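> example.struct
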């Protein structure tokens, strides 16, 4: 059983990379951000305050897999709200077992698992076989996200995206519980000047080196 843990900043390209690695190695893939987004979306729909730790944790405890399929989860406002509910220790605790089970007991026919998020290599799977930490220049990440949001039909300026990205980075990196940071044994990958294909090749070299001993 092989576990690949991929953490990194917002719009660094870690999700695309994780998906490609999972397809290449025949592993299951979990976008852990979706769990936080699903909790946030429920909170927004049910008019629950995002700073209400107890109520948000209840939503996290009652999440079901179909909650993860709604395309609205990809939107900018839900992502912002996700980073607010993600600061609550009880929300994180409620989502822990699901993520660890996904990593340790991949469904057939998968031979391993790739998980991406903020705390996979540090908290969820500290014993992962391979850990990657993906980052890129904030201006480049904002440009990528801006184009993505325009593609979803959202009306937003580049400057707003850059400001939100910086706020999100700060919130994710400075929260008390499970802050975003590279695990000590993570391989760092800066995708600022890499195409998706080049980032995938670089990541594959790291994974192959580990898998082939
Ligand atoms: O990766 P994504 O943008 O979908 O994540 C949304 C938010 O969920 C992040 O900004 C972060 O606050 C939170 N998150 C987290 N831990 C994870 C994955 C996501 O705190 N493992």
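> example.seq
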């Amino acid at each position: 059983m092989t576990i690949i843990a991929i953490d990194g900043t917002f719009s660094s390209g870690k999700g695309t990379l994780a998906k490609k690695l999972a397809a290449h190695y025949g592993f299951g893939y979990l976008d852990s951000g979706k769990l936080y987004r699903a909790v946030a979306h429920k909170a927004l729909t049910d008019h629950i305050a995002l700073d209400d730790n107890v109520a948000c944790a209840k939503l996290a405890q009652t999440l079901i897999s179909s909650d993860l399929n709604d395309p609205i989860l990809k939107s900018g406002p839900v992502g912002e709200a996700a980073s607010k509910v993600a600061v609550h220790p009880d929300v994180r605790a409620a989502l822990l077992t699901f993520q660890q089970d996904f990593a340790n007991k991949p469904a057939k026919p998968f031979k391993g698992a790739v998980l991406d998020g903020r705390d996979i290599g540090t908290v969820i799977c500290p014993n992962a076989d391979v850990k990657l930490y993906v980052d890129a220049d904030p201006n480049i990440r904002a440009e990528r996200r801006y184009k993505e949001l325009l593609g979803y039909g959202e009306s937003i300026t580049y400057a707003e995206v850059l400001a939100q990205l910086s706020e999100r980075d700060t919130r994710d990196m400075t929260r008390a519980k499970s802050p975003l940071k590279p695990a000590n044994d993570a391989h760092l990958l800066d995708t600022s000047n890499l195409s998706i294909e080049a980032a995938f090749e670089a990541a594959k070299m790291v994974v192959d080196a580990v898998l082939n001993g």
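> remarks
Residues 10, 32-33, 36-37, 79, 82-83, 86, 117-120, 168, 172 surround cytidine-5'-monophosphate (CB under 6 Å).
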